[in-house]
Automatic annotation (TrEMBL):
InterPro entries: Amidohydro-rel, Hydantoinase/dihydroPyrase, Metal-dep_hydrolase_composite, Metal_Hydrolase, Metallo-dep_Hydrolases_sf, Urease_alpha_N_dom. It comes from the Bacteria. Residues 454-476 are annotated as: Disordered. Residues 51-443 form the Amidohydrolase-related domain. It is an enzyme of class 3 (hydrolase). Belongs to the metallo-dependent hydrolases superfamily. Hydantoinase/dihydropyrimidinase family. This is Dihydropyrimidinase. The lineage of its organism: Bacteria, Pseudomonadati, Pseudomonadota, Gammaproteobacteria, Oceanospirillales. Residues 4-37 form the Urease alpha-subunit N-terminal domain.
Length: 476
């Protein structure tokens, strides 16, 4: 009988800490050996010339999320996870979203029904808390955090999602007591509403004005407020989808003062600008997302913050709406005011190739930081480490083999999501994930999904160590 189910030989292994040549022995979906000259396997994969990295963790994506306004997400767990796998990702963490008036447990149960048996890669759930009633704060959230749903997102904007400052404080105090990780969408709702009305009163309703309404100042103010509220409670937070220098400065300031404030950014803030919203006709709607892409100086600031450690996490914020679809971007027709356009852009499959090509190969970040940002840090921050996010004995055999020389042109027709466009059409990249394994099974080969839906398993998350408060018990 063979020692191993699979051996990956001759590859250059890259983790968040090291790079070295070694073979990887896999048994029952786990890594059981790392060494040189390993032998005795059912299947041998020769990785000569390839880089072997932990499979990507996309810790912020939206799949089959029910929305109250008639819009429908194009991707469910089947199409979303096959697309993620083709792009080198082996775990996704989408959101079980509470509707106002709904219990949180009901939202989680509903999301299990939506995902059961459909995913081709592993998945955990964050929650979205929109209605922090006493039952939610005192009973449902503490129990759910204990049961493996240890992170959740709150919003400071969007009428149907936002919490006021008092509610944020109550939620943060609960997170501190229970050990949950709080993700915050930081934009100032009143600033956006004011600017939206002003622009509309001047007849400025085209998609490009979405960028003006979602001012970077509104993002900066909300980021600072989120940090202040978290400092008051003494609890770590993570600011999601940071778009530029204004918010980055706030996060860096907080980190400089020793606060546990983490930051996340996404490919759209590296690759798109306000000019992408300003296209012929309604085309700009394809790039409407919040916060919006800004300008080349903002892109540069985002690159720097990836390099210098202000950001810990790089996610897609995949929010899939078809363009030519009355349930998608054209929910209110092709002449809709910008603020009626569903927010979000697709990116599950392009997230890793973009950062690999534009970040690693262009030497803006090194390969170990790429691994930290795309796999190891999200695993640690959301309670999946060391099962996920690294290459170590005992970890799940979630691996992506990269050909660092292969050219890759992004074409929507070659992607595997159910969205009818990519904002990166025609983008020329270098480096491709040529083989992706999730728990030892090949889930994509040469950019094509290769596993049936249902391979993916639900993951319970531990209470994350980075969610622990800094110290002094405050009696909250
Ligand atoms: N903004 C969000 O907050 N979520 C989904 C997509 C987006 O653009
Ligand atoms: Zn958000
Ligand atoms: Zn999002």
């Amino acid at each position: 009988m063979s020692h191993f189910d699979t051996l990956i030989t001759n590859g250059l292994i890259i983790t968040a800490a090291d790079r070295y040549h070694a073979d990887i022995g896999i048994k029952d979906g786990r890594i059981v050996a790392l060494g040189q000259g390993l032998s005795g396997a059912e299947e041998v994969i020769d990785a000569a010339g390839l880089w072997v990295m932990p499979g990507g963790i996309d810790a912020h994506c939206h799949l089959d999320q029910p929305l109250g306004d008639g819009a429908v997400m194009a991707d469910d767990f089947e199409t979303g996870t096959r697309s993620a796998a083709a792009g080198g990702t082996t775990t996704v963490i989408p959101f079980a979203a509470q509707q106002k008036g709904q219990g949180l447990r009901a939202a989680v149960e509903d999301y299990h029904r939506r995902s059961d048996g459909k995913a081709s890669i592993d998945y955990a759930f964050h929650m979205i808390v929109t209605d922090p009633t006493e039952t939610v704060l005192k009973e449902e959230l503490p129990a759910l955090i204990q049961e493996g749903y240890s992170s959740f997102k709150i919003y400071l904007t969007y009428d149907d999602l936002k919490l006021n400052d008092r509610e944020v404080l109550e939620v943060l105090a609960m997170a501190r007591r229970e050990g949950g990780m709080v993700m915050i969408h930081a934009e100032n709702a009143d600033c956006i509403a004011y600017l939206t009305e002003l622009l509309e009163s001047q007849g400025k309703t085209a998609p490009r004005y979405h960028g003006e309404a979602h001012s970077a100042i509104a993002e900066r103010e909300a980021t600072h407020r989120a940090i202040s509220l978290a400092e008051l409670i003494d609890v770590p937070i993570l600011i999601v989808h940071v778009s530029g220098p204004e918010a980055i400065e706030q996060i860096r300031w907080a980190q400089g003062r020793g606060l546990r404030v983490y930051g996340e950014t996404c490919p759209q803030y590296l690759m798109l600008t306000a000019a992408d919203l300003d296209q012929e006709g309604f085309e700009g709607a394809k790039c409407v997302c919040s916060p919006p892409p800004r300008d080349p100086k903002a892109q540069e600031a985002v690159w720097q913050a990836l390099e210098n450690g202000v950001f810990q996490v790089f996610s897609s914020d995949h929010a899939p709406f078809r363009y030519d679809d009355p349930q998608g971007k054209k929910l209110h027709g092709e002449h809709a005011d910008f603020h009626h356009i569903p927010n979000g852009i697709p990116g599950l499959e392009t997230r890793l190739p973009i950062l690999f090509s534009e970040g690693v190969l262009k030497e803006r970040i090194d390969a170990t930081r790429f691994v930290a940002l795309t796999a190891t840090n999200p695993a640690k921050i959301y309670g999946l480490y060391p099962r996920k996010g690294t290459i170590a004995i005992g970890s799940d055999a979630d691996l992506t083999l990269w050909d660092p020389r292969a050219p890759l042109t992004v074409r929507n027709e070659r992607l595997h999501h159910a969205v009818d466009y990519t904002p990166y059409e025609g983008l020329e990249l270098t480096g491709r994930p040529v083989l992706t394994l999730c728990r030892g099974a090949v889930v994509s080969r040469d950019g094509e999904p290769s596993v049936a839906p249902g391979h993916g398993r639900f993951l319970k998350c531990d209470k994350p160590q980075p969610a622990r408060p800094r110290g002094a018990a405050k009696g909250f």
